[in-house]
UniProtKB/TrEMBL annotation:
Gene3D superfamilies: 3.90.480.20. Residues 24-75 form the Nitrite/Sulfite reductase ferredoxin-like domain. This is Nitrite reductase. The lineage of its organism: Bacteria, Bacillati, Actinomycetota, Actinomycetes, Propionibacteriales. Signal peptide: none annotated. It holds the Pfam family NIR_SIR_ferr. Keywords: 4Fe-4S, Heme, Iron, Iron-sulfur, Metal-binding, Oxidoreductase. It comes from Nocardioides anomalus. GO terms for molecular function: 4 iron, 4 sulfur cluster binding; metal ion binding; oxidoreductase activity. It comes from the Bacteria.
Amino acid sequence: MAHAMTVRDRTDLCPGVFRPWPAEDGGLVRLRPTGGLLPSRALVDLVGVAEAYGDGRVHLTSRANVQLRALPLEDGAVPGEVVDAIEATGLLPSRSHELVRNIMVSPQSGFWAGRVDLRPLADELDRLLCADPRLAGLPGRFLFVLDDGRGDLLDRTLDLGVVGVSPAAVQLRLGSEHWGAMVPVARAAAELVALAHVFLDARGEGPEAPWHVDELGAPLEPPCERYWGIGAEQPPLPDGEVPGGVHHVVADGAVDRALAETVAAAKDVVVVTPWRGLFVPDRVRQ
């Protein structure tokens, strides 16, 4: 059903290294590892940055991102020395598109079960986003959600996404309310990028422009029926041993050096989960 387009009174203020949020304890910046996946040593290195310049911890978010808090600011900006230290971790691959690299993936995807490993799709989507100058203009709150068919991210509010229906196909999602076409996995990243352009066309420009697909006055394109084989929503990963690895639900969502070093000693990679936890896989990618 069509509804009135949401009218904002400002642009979004989602933080990044080059757009820090001036919190009471200092600058807050957010880094966006693709699908939450990062080398475990990069997490240790980021804790080192937090110890040298911030509050000593890496903070996990409900979008499977990581944040640094209490950073120094100079005229509202993060000092160059701190930017260099952050970039040295490898977790800031694009300066121009840092705010729009919001790609959430089923945390166990590629490590255990799921209908399809969506990590190659996430990597391709990230590459296409960063290669497209216009897409740097997406709102910082704009979120891609890729559920590999297990249903762990079906309940997420999103802008664009997919749900795996087979090893070779996914169904597109057009905001939180509507479903799109079934497409081959190999074509899905390009489809999502094309839809992101449709969103930019529909939202317009200026501080009153909507931040989300759900805020538009009509679907991005004529919606389809949800594929009958897509199952029910699944609960969050519990704390402790889970199929394919161990999920550490982090107290206060804050990772200190002890935890980061423990994770790095166990495996080469770690996945930040949208439940403010760390999934440490017990095997290499499938």
